[in-house]
């Protein structure tokens, strides 16, 4: 499902900038639709004035200024979101990206988006620090005829955005549970533990719900313990230590976040435990390197792909140029796009390595 409050802290990151862009504030891959949007050639339908779906999208078209506003990039995944948006915008000659500094303060981010609205950008891409609290600013942009692509943490009403694109938190848990279930299938009295994220976040609750639902299909497997961490290395190490002390022996661990997973790995190494397999979440480069090396308990990670930000730029460009999306019959872009939570293992890790974030 979709993220609502802010993603917890992780690594610091520089502010977002673009080759053709502008940074606002005090300090101021192929994406989903990379080849799937419609052409810039002058072949509009005379009745609709829109480009027909299914043609190429490589040639420059109408100039589009996209305003990008996200929270502070204090976590590896959020830094990757910024980088994906910037890189995708740079790939288009007809896109100018105007970005904010990013903030986890609701009032400050609201002011930054107000600045973008006052600059009269053509389209806004917004990853709100808090979707519910910032719904008002999405509504304001839409009422001023600036279409909004709502990225990941959803606003409180669809009236505040033209299109939502984000990850599938329930699907993350579901696919993690299925992977573990298949690996432990047939083992008697198999035990699993869960290192969750922040329990006050809906995204954490959805990841746990998906995981529990998947395990229902494997009656021989029991979840015997769960700890909630805070998506940081420090919290991951502390909470994993507690799990290891509470459960002398288990067969699998589902960790919600690869950043906190770094701490969890430290705790596991310090305890000298290796009788279980570990599945991570999000898709960091560190996790993928460990999976590829195959010399630790970490055997898989379930993606929450930051490439959704690149896809958001594609969607914003399509909106600014009054396009549909290639491969779809509709003349308009979809109202929502949910990214798939693929499971990265040793068998397919090379394919996903370019998407791994630091």
From TrEMBL:
Location of this chain's protein in the cell: Cell envelope
Keywords from the named record: Signal
Record-annotated Periplasmic binding protein domain positions: 66-319
Keyword Signal recorded: yes
Region (Disordered), start-end ranges: 37-63
Database matches in Gene3D superfamilies: 3.40.50.2300
Family, per entry: Belongs to the bacterial solute-binding protein 2 family.
Name of the molecule in the record: Substrate-binding domain-containing protein
Organism: Streptomyces hazeniae
């Amino acid at each position: 499902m979709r993220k609502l409050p802010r993603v917890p802290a992780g690594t610091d990151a520089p502010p977002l900038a673009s080759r053709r862009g502008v940074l606002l504030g005090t300090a101021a891959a192929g994406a989903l639709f990379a080849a799937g949007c419609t052409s810039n050639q002058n072949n509009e339908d005379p009745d609709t004035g829109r480009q027909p779906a299914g043609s190429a999208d490589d040639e420059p078209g109408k100039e589009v200024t996209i305003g990008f506003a996200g929270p502070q990039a204090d976590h590896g995944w959020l830094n990757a979101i910024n980088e994906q948006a910037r890189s995708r915008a740079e790939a288009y000659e007809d896109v100018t990206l105007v970005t904010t500094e990013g903030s986890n303060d609701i009032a400050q981010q609201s002011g930054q988006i107000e600045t973008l609205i006052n600059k009269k950008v053509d389209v806004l891409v917004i990853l709100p620090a808090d979707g519910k609290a910032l719904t008002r600013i999405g509504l304001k942009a839409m009422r001023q005829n600036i279409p909004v692509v709502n990225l990941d943490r959803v606003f409180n009403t669809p009236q505040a955005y033209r299109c939502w694109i984000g990850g599938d938190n329930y699907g993350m848990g579901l696919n993690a549970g299925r992977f573990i279930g298949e690996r432990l299938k047939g083992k008697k009295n198999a035990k699993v533990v869960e290192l969750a994220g922040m329990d006050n976040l809906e995204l954490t609750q959805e990841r746990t719900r998906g995981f529990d639902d998947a395990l229902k299909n494997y009656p021989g497997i029991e979840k015997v313990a769960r700890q909630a961490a805070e998506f940081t290395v420090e919290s991951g190490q502390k909470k994993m230590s507690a799990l290891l002390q509470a459960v002398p022996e288990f067969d699998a661990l589902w960790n919600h976040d690869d950043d906190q997973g770094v701490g969890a790995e430290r705790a596991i190494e310090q305890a000298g435990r290796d009788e279980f397999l570990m599945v991570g979440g999000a898709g960091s480069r560190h996790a993928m390197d460990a999976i590829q090396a195959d010399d630790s308990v970490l055997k898989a990670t379930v993606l929450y792909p930051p490439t959704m930000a690149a896809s958001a730029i594609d969607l914003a460009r399509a909106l600014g140029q009054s396009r549909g999306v290639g491969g779809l019959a509709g003349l308009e872009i979809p109202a929502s796009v949910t990214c798939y939570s693929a499971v990265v293992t040793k068998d397919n890790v090379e394919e996903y390595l370019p998407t791994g974030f630091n």
